[in-house]
Amino acid sequence: MTGAKRKKKNVLWSKMHTPHCEDIKYWCRKRLPILEWAPHYNLKENLLPDIVSGVMLAVQQVTQGLAFAILSSVHPVFGLYGSLFPAIIYAIFGMGRHVATGTFALTSLISANAVERLVPQSSQNLTTHNHSSVLGFSDFEMQRIGVAAAVSFLAGVIQVAMFVLQLGSATFLVTEPVISAMTTGAATHVVTSQVKYLLGIKMPYISGPLGFFYIYAYVFENIKSVRLEAVLLSSLSIVVLVLVKELNEQFKRKIKVVLPIDLVLIIAATFACYFTNMESAYGLEVIGHIPKGIPPPQAPSMGILSAVVTEAFGVALVGYVASLALAQGSAKKFKYSVDDNQELLAHGLSNVISSFCFCIPSAAAMGRTAGLYSTGSKTQVACLISCIFVLIVIYAIGPLLYWLPMCVLASIIVVGLKGMLIQFRDLKKYWNVDKIDWGIWISTYIFTICFAANVGLLFGVVSTIAIVIGRFPREKTLSIINMKEMEFKVKTETDDETLQQVKIISINNPLVFLNAKKFGADVMNLVQKENQLLDDISKCEQNTLLNSLSNGNCNDELAQPCSSEKCSLVLDCTGLTFFDYSGVSMLVEVYMNCKGRNVDVSLASCTASLIKAMTYCGNLDSEKPIFFDSVSAAISNIYSNKNLNKLSDHSEV
Amino acid sequence: MTGAKRKKKNVLWSKMHTPHCEDIKYWCRKRLPILEWAPHYNLKENLLPDIVSGVMLAVQQVTQGLAFAILSSVHPVFGLYGSLFPAIIYAIFGMGRHVATGTFALTSLISANAVERLVPQSSQNLTTHNHSSVLGFSDFEMQRIGVAAAVSFLAGVIQVAMFVLQLGSATFLVTEPVISAMTTGAATHVVTSQVKYLLGIKMPYISGPLGFFYIYAYVFENIKSVRLEAVLLSSLSIVVLVLVKELNEQFKRKIKVVLPIDLVLIIAATFACYFTNMESAYGLEVIGHIPKGIPPPQAPSMGILSAVVTEAFGVALVGYVASLALAQGSAKKFKYSVDDNQELLAHGLSNVISSFCFCIPSAAAMGRTAGLYSTGSKTQVACLISCIFVLIVIYAIGPLLYWLPMCVLASIIVVGLKGMLIQFRDLKKYWNVDKIDWGIWISTYIFTICFAANVGLLFGVVSTIAIVIGRFPREKTLSIINMKEMEFKVKTETDDETLQQVKIISINNPLVFLNAKKFGADVMNLVQKENQLLDDISKCEQNTLLNSLSNGNCNDELAQPCSSEKCSLVLDCTGLTFFDYSGVSMLVEVYMNCKGRNVDVSLASCTASLIKAMTYCGNLDSEKPIFFDSVSAAISNIYSNKNLNKLSDHSEV
């Protein structure tokens, strides 16, 4: 008995006897994918690559955690928590094997908006001396993480609600060009936000429409306050990072373990800063105090939920779309399947539960996922192992990071965004494949740059839909079936004359309000052309009488002339996949118009629902059958009718 | 020389010599349709029916003008102006021959919203004694018409702007069920607004979301203040109107001129009211003072334009959509053509110019257009003649209407809406033809009832689009071409064995992001099924060895088995009308997957752009051709390859 059969029998059996227990088990396995893969985990084969990957991932998680927390306008340590909890929860609920959930640049950028709006920098001085009870954070810091956690909470609730409504599949509306443009635009935003650290400029938080340009305007206005030391250090870091990563890429196949240059750079920079006392000597900005340990869970500020709805929607959608693309990429590469809705649940729960642990909004990040690929990770165990190392950082190493210069961190972030920024290269592909998608890319990118990632995403989706809707009424709706291909079928049974009076048109589209009008016009054009040909034919026949040599020439262009007797039109509805009221009434109108012009219409391969709708909608000829199973049946019918007519003609004679 | 040829020659000639003069003439004829038809007006044939129609139309214009002005919350006389100016301007610019432009219930209902919001009833007492200089209207009345005229002005500007952007064709988005539901809902609103006159209740203006239900709630709360006289008079009027109109309809063919019951009723009621002094004796509400003449033109209040943007958009869209449907209906019935954009211009100018003459927003009304049909009108001359009679009413008869009871007017309005209200009968049709369109009708109607006509229209359009978008990913994307029909083509040339290893799939849809995923899954399912069959086949062959009698049985279900040698897939792209990046990359993916499974893929009848896109997008096999002009070419190629292989096999042997 095969496994599938046994399972089926079990399900059947359970339905009869104890439905609840078995159903709950099945549901749990479906909703908790960890129960599916963990028991079959191959320790021998997978543990070593997963540990290696886990260590490398931990380095990225810590670096990005610190950086994206600063991007979110909260204290860096909250980024470390954000690299820990969401990863654990995703490992339990998620199906993507190479999806490294944690802090994410795009969602951090969006939630920073809410943080800076509700708890602006200027309010710091008012509350700076009131230390709260949690790990010695100031009230100001606690208020800020409260807002970020509230965004995370609400975004998670939205994602879970979308899971309940099974909206996961609605992501088909977000096409590849839109995701590419939106992430590239957001990466540009992140680079822009790091410029102040790279140059060592003190700068207020700038956001809102066109904020992107105001930031650069501010930088150019204050070009004199640039710290040369910071510029030097960041250029050095960027050059080293790019070079070493390039070399890693080149020699990846020869030497199996790559140099964790991020880790090396962080350690080197921290030590250099500590020993040369750069903070006070050169005025370099450093990360500062990082408290040890994890504070006890606390609910996010529920009172401000209504104030962060916009940001929460942005985080929920942008985070989910970007993460799903990564999970699907992994599934495609390693031939397994990912359930859209289960991913929604996994990310939703990651956000909701983590928000109680002082976490900023989370999602899967492209750089980390690419890292998992390149270090050969096999399962989510790699992510769980990375969590152990993140925990070690939180409890032991964290405080040592005090002297990590901000400009080095910013350099790591900027270089890490390389993968997103080189998506500019896609532009050439889109240009060659489809100019319209190229246009959508460009405009989505511009919208993302000028406004924000969520605005760009919305614009991209709406314009993609609008363009498809707008293309329908312009495109051809039918094609004339090549008579040659049909000829052979009927040739044996009938004479050529009959065949030439039959025109077979195949409908290639769903027939809906978008293209019904065009369809009607197209068919009537064809029928009218026939009628016009009639005049030409008679002329042509006269010519033929005058000069019988030019006969072949004259018939060349007039392939299927319609003589004074009834001409026939066969509509092949195989391609008519679905229809609405407008489509059916147009079909009936075409039928009526053709009848008025003495053209017989037959419909081949209609679905039952189309036949029912047409019968109801139109006052169809009840004497003659007009619906046929296939084109050949329709042609046979026309042929037999013709023969009947001829017979009656003969009998009259 | 035919007219068309001469025209063409003229155009050619004008392009070479004096382009401007001829171009301007051509443009004028195109944009001023009156220049096209007026010079050829057939006085003998058309004048008499047009005069008869004009007189009957004037009766409707006056009645509806008075009523819809009250519906707009302005003084009734402004409705008379609104029955005059827009009709003249439409006659000049419009192309619909039976389109009677003037006051319109739906647009009046929308503009009433703006009037009551900006100049509420309560402000009357403050300004009632300040008589303005215009025909003795109070400042209050002048402010109210100022708002209505501003709505009309802005709506007209929006329509002209849409004309400039050539957005007329965008009305294909508004389907018949949506128009039907929206107009039925609006008619229900109009009936509701007349209830207070029918019952003789004094009632405040109620609008806003769910206002519909609040009105009936108010009526039931104040059921005791109903005036029995008003109820009696209105019931009598309604019964008489319905009966006589029904009789008119029955005997229309026998007696050519119908009884103008509206006119008779107005005259009778006015006289009765005057002689019995109903106004003071029974407290019946009457129309009141109607000033003589037309005031000099005056610009609408430009200062409040920004406050009436919502209403202006509603009027512009609802008015245009309803009017275009009528013009197209007339064009279809009498076999001429109507230009969507020219109609936009005509209605836009009607609204803009009329707004300077104290007019409420205008559009074409269904009742009046139906009247023009039934009285046999031929051209817009009927409308121009009706304008003469409306002018007579304004200058001579108007003041006599003082005693016209409001309840009689309301009865005429309600009975006049019969045509819109019986659209409920469409529901049965939609149910039988397409359940989804039925659902759209119901929900659009509910939205219109609960909110307003413009909200309903928007909801209907958005849900129609959303449903089409949502249906795409679910519907089948391809169909397997019946091998029987192809067989005959190739039979003569090749052997059956080859044919059976070729699968021809026809793509029946545009291949875009909406259905690309489904398409890929469908094709791969087919290919996988083949591979599964392989196993069964080998089993089957064993069976055959065991029991050669059951051979035929066994092959029955396994029609096209795929042997260990290469199997072929021909994708017929005739029906692939357009594509985007997602579609092309899915095609390339399918090609690659099939190659991985040792299945040869050929594409037949691709467009040049598709070939270019696929060549660029995918790393296609450069050795073998994969694009063919037709399915038969692709099959021939497969056949010749097979033969080559066989030849080489033989030579090896």
TrEMBL record, chains A, B:
Gene Ontology CC, one term: apical plasma membrane
Catalytic activity: sulfate(in) = sulfate(out); thiocyanate(in) = thiocyanate(out); hydrogencarbonate(in) = hydrogencarbonate(out); D-gluconate(in) = D-gluconate(out)
Kinase in keyword set: no
Subcellular location: Apical cell membrane; Basolateral cell membrane; Lateral cell membrane; Recycling endosome membrane
Superkingdom assignment: Eukaryota
CDD domains: STAS_SulP_like_sulfate_transporter
Record domain STAS: where: 492-638
Swiss-Prot/TrEMBL keywords: Anion exchange, Cell membrane, Endosome, Ion transport, Membrane, Transmembrane, Transmembrane helix, Transport
Any one biological process term the GO annotation gives: iodide transport
InterPro entries per record: SLC26A/SulP_dom, SLC26A/SulP_fam, STAS_dom, STAS_dom_sf
Keyword Ion transport: yes
Pfam family for this entry, one: STAS
Membrane topology, as annotated: Multi-pass membrane protein
Gene Ontology MF terms: chloride channel activity; chloride:bicarbonate antiporter activity
Membrane-spanning intervals of the chain: 66-93, 145-165, 203-220, 226-245, 257-277, 304-327, 348-367, 379-397, 402-422, 442-469
Coarse class of the protein's main subcellular location: membrane
Membership in a protein family: Belongs to the SLC26A/SulP transporter (TC 2.A.53) family.
Name of protein: Anion exchange transporter
Source species of the chain: Dipodomys ordii
